[in-house]
Design a protein that fits this description.
It contains 7 helices and 11 strands. The chain has 236 residues and is an alpha+beta fold. It has 2 domains: 118 residues, Jelly Rolls (Sandwich); 80 residues, Arc Repressor Mutant, subunit A, CATH 1.10.10. InterPro entries: cNMP-bd_dom (IPR000595), cNMP-bd_dom_sf (IPR018490), Env_Response_Regulators (IPR050397), HTH_CRP (IPR012318), RmlC-like_jellyroll (IPR014710), WH-like_DNA-bd_sf (IPR036388), WH_DNA-bd_sf (IPR036390).
Length: 236
């Protein structure tokens, strides 16, 4: 949250309390399973995770990719059973905390509560963009948009990232996020590479012509252009 506003010592201490415990999650492990009881929320401290649902035909739809600093399972706070599965895409470290701690944050630190709302709405709008893309844009545009989204999220936690980044996803995982087969994803990546929009080497992707890639993807970075003038003043 520090990237959006300067936190007060009291706000920082409240967030630090949520991260007192640490749990290591190995790549491929499930942290929370869809339709099972959920009593904890988590803050992702290290690594890359995803949320997904399983469809009736057994296929997987990836909803979001989750990055360090994200609160995981926030939607589970209002349900007795988890509405989505959380799984690790790399070796991860998470900090679990009880729902009651979230209530304490909302009572004692209204600005932090408002910031949680802000992040939830950013995720909602980004997911709406993905939904619109699945129904209305080409396979090439969907893959391009996902690459831009991943780079933007990685840059938010690592300012040294410019146009090159480690993808960290398999073509199957990209396909499950964009509604494509792994074969189709491979074809679209090759097209983007052959037209000079991206480069690939050793698992790294370079955005060679970001303006053209952004136009091709009809991409909007939902983490910029925010109006936070309405946020309540911090209490401490």
């Amino acid at each position: 949250m520090n990237e959006l506003v300067a936190l007060t010592p009291g706000e920082s201490a409240a967030l630090d309390n949520l991260e007192e415990r640490q749990r290591h999650v190995r790549r491929g492990a499930v942290l929370q399973r869809e339709n099972e009881a959920c009593n904890e929320l988590f803050i992702l401290r290290k690594g890359l995770m995803m949320s997904y649902v399983l469809l009736d035909d057994g296929s997987r739809q990836i909803l979001r990719f989750l990055f360090p600093g994200d609160i995981l399972g926030i939607s589970s706070a209002i349900y007795q059973e988890a509405p989505e599965t959380l799984a690790a895409l790399s070796d991860c470290v998470v900090s679990p905390f009880d729902r009651a701690a979230l209530a304490d944050i909302m009572t004692g630190h209204p600005r932090l509560s408002a910031l949680i709302l802000v992040y939830s709405q950013i995720e909602r709008v980004a997911l709406t963009d993905r939904l619109a893309a699945l129904g209305r844009t080409s396979a090439r545009a969907r893959v391009a948009a996902l690459l831009l989204e991943l780079r933007s999220r990685l840059r938010a936690t690592d300012k040294s990232i410019d146009n090159a980044f480690l993808l960290g996803l398999t073509q199957e995982e990209i396909g499950d996020a964009t509604g494509l087969t792994a074969v189709h994803v491979n074809r679209m990546l090759r097209q983007l590479e052959e037209t000079g929009l991206i480069g690939r080497e050793g698992g790294r992707v370079t955005l060679k012509d970001e303006p053209a890639l952004t136009r091709a993807a009809n991409f909007v970075n939902r983490y910029v252009g925010l109006d936070l003038s309405w946020l309540p003043k911090p209490r401490s």
